[in-house]
Amino acid sequence: MVFKGTYHHRIDPKGRLPVPAAFRRQLAGERSTRRLVVTLLDDCLAAYPPDEWARLEAQLSGLPPFSKPVKALARVLASHAVDCEMDVQGRIRLPAVLRAAIGLEREAVVVGVVERFEIWAPDRWTRFLRDSERLLDDVSLDVPWPRPRTTPGGSAGPRSTGEA
Q1: Nearest Cα to 101, choosing from 18, 17, 15, 42?
Q2: Three-state SS for 40?
Q3: Nearest one of 25, 10, 11, 28 to 93, comparing CA atoms
Q4: Cβ within 8 Å of residue 1, ≥6 positions away
């Protein structure tokens, strides 16, 4: 299951957010789950399908249990996690305490992030993009991009370097 794309939605007065149709289709293919685990993550809310949340829990359990950073991460993720059921119209009700924690009011930006999707207040999403672009300008990942394509025989095909 892969979540991708950016969507803009309104939150109704009851705190219900429409899950983007593309994401609902992904979830429908995943054993028809209508439940998501939503938690606080950085400056947004992260929504995980149950299988992905279970995988995250297993990863956390595999880390050193007495490490201060591991304990802090586990506490933050688990203490803010709530199960959110999708209604028949494909909406999830976001608890007021989680909406307040990220400054979410009437408008939301919903962003696919591969195994999860994130829910952002528009101003925080804009700030994140601006800051991330600066960070990416300063960081060299030493990864050739685009990555070489492999041909059916297993060898790398021609690659564009981006240089003229």
Answers
A1: 42
A2: strand
A3: 11
A4: 26, 27, 29, 30, 49, 52, 115
d(CA 136, CA 43): 19
Contact 46, 116 (CB under 8 A): yes
Rounded Cα–Cα distance for residues 124 and 98 (Å): 15
pLDDT digits (tens, 9 = 90+) for 8-66: 999 999 999 999 999 999 888 766 578 999 999 999 999 999 999 999 999 988 999 89
Q: Tell me how far apart the alpha carbons of residues 39 and 138 are, in angstroms, rounded to a whole number.
A: 30
**Exposed/middle/buried for 92, CB within 10 Å: 0-12, 13-18, 19+?**
buried
* Residue 103 · residue 121 · CB < 8 Å: yes
Find tokens 């919903």 and name the residue.
110
| 3-class secondary-structure state, position 23 | helix
DSSP 147: P
**Residues 106, 10: contact at Cβ < 8 Å?**
yes
Question: What is the pTM (predicted TM-score) of this model?
Answer: 0.79
For residues 61 and 58, give the distance between their C-alpha atoms in angstroms, rounded to a whole number.
5
Q: Which domains, ranges and CATH numbers included, belong to the chain? A: 6-138 (3.40.1550.20)
